Amino acid sequence: MTVFARSLIGLTLALSVFAVSVTEPDAVTATRVARGGGGNNGNSGGGPYGPGGGSNNGGHDGPGGPHGPGSGNGGGNHGGGGGGKPHHPEPSHRPPPRPYRRALDTLHGAQIADEICPGDAYGCPIAPAGSLSSLPNGLDDWVNQGFYCVDRTADLTDCGGCAALDAKHDCTRITGAKSVSCVSGSCVVDSCLPNFTLDSNSCTAN
Fold it and tell me: Do the Cβ atoms of 20 and 40 come closer than 8 Å?
């Protein structure tokens, strides 16, 4: 009887050791499932109770599990919102590409005015109306003088040209004019102030 009892106890201990050896990998597996694996492109989700996986290539993090918070930009079903910071493109603060600067360095005066602004805009130097006799010469002169970009076909203060070179390009300076416009690069007087009469696109004092 004693021998039988000892055999039974030994069998019980053996079964316990076998159960532990079987359940340990499952516990590890459960932990791995709960945490969720990182996706190559940030698309892998989390396990039932864990956060979403990470991203190796800068993509969005995967969503969290049913009860876990999402990491990065994706939130879990019952967890908190994503902790990732949304990406917003920022303007570049780098200087103009060297080839472009070298191209401008070969130009002068009006050529630079035509090329220094984007699209069809024209560069005008910053200076009081009628104070300059010519446009800045080289690129360094333009940068030192300062400039702004205008649409010479419609800009009231630089209509048909730069007011810094000739005050006539500033339509708002027309004597006696109340309402003016810039049409195809020419100042047009629409109405005159009291005591002035509209006469051939100008205002004449009464």
Answer: no
Asked whether the beta carbons of 156 and 172 are under 8 A apart, the reply is yes
Question: Do residues 150 and 122 make contact, with C-beta atoms less than 8 angstroms apart?
Answer: yes
As to burial, measured by CB atoms within 10 angstroms (0-12 exposed, 13-18 middle, 19+ buried), residue 66 is middle
Pairing of strands 177-183, 186-192: antiparallel
pTM above threshold 0.70: no
The position carrying tokens 């316990």 is 16
Are 29 and 23 contacting, i.e. CB atoms less than 8 angstroms apart? Answer: no
User: What does the pLDDT profile of the chain (206 residues) look like in tens digits?
Assistant: 444 444 444 444 444 444 444 444 444 333 333 344 444 444 444 444 444 444 444 444 444 444 444 444 444 444 444 444 333 344 333 444 554 555 777 788 899 999 889 999 999 999 999 999 999 999 989 999 999 999 999 999 999 999 999 999 999 999 999 999 999 999 999 999 999 999 989 999 99
